[in-house]
Structures are given as structure tokens and as C-alpha cells.
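Moderator note: this is an archived Q&A kept for reference. The question asked for a predicted structure of one protein chain; the sequence and the answer are reproduced below.
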Amino acid sequence: MFRFLEKSDGFRKTMNKVEIEGTIDKESKPFRLSDLVSSSLTASFIYDIEFNGRIYSPRNRVTAPGNTIQFVRYFDDFPVQQLTNFWIDTVGELNKEFVVQLLL
């Protein structure tokens, strides 16, 4: 669930009730936090960056709520659209008959 907002100036905050219900200004980017844990070690993907006095990686897509670092996943990282054009009035044949030829 996307419960956080990043403002245009980079400030991050928890959404209030109105924002969770869908009223968000156009300059804000909804995001959620996800684990920053890999299933395996890949040396080429290890690099450090200082963030708020600590070392994290990668570029500003990491935050530390408490003692754990989390990946910032924006709502528009994987854009999708709501389906609104349903064809509920078209139905295929309901009483299907099948013809099967058997070799004897």
C-alpha cells in the first residue's frame, strides 16, 4: 500500500486520511517502502552512499524508518491503467457441443 508522499522539494511524509483516499496534489509522488534484501550477493551491485549521516545505496531511493533501511518504490515506477471498458454484454456460446472422432 502506498502510504507515503514525496513533495516536489524532496520532503517525504506519511499520507493523511484525505491523501490516502485519493486527494493528492500533482507535484507529490506517492511511494511505499519495500525490503532492501537480495536473494544473493552480486559484487557489481555493491556501492555506498552517505544519507543522513549513514551509509546507504543507491541514489535517494533508500530511507531509514527506524533501524532498517528500505527501498523507496514510487507509484509510477510501474504505471498501469484502470480497466474501464468492460464488454459484459458479449458472451460466447453457453451450450457448447463437441464432436470427437475416435479411431477404432
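Archived answer notes: Strands lie at 4-6, 12-14, 29-35, 49-51, 54-56, 62-63, 70-74.
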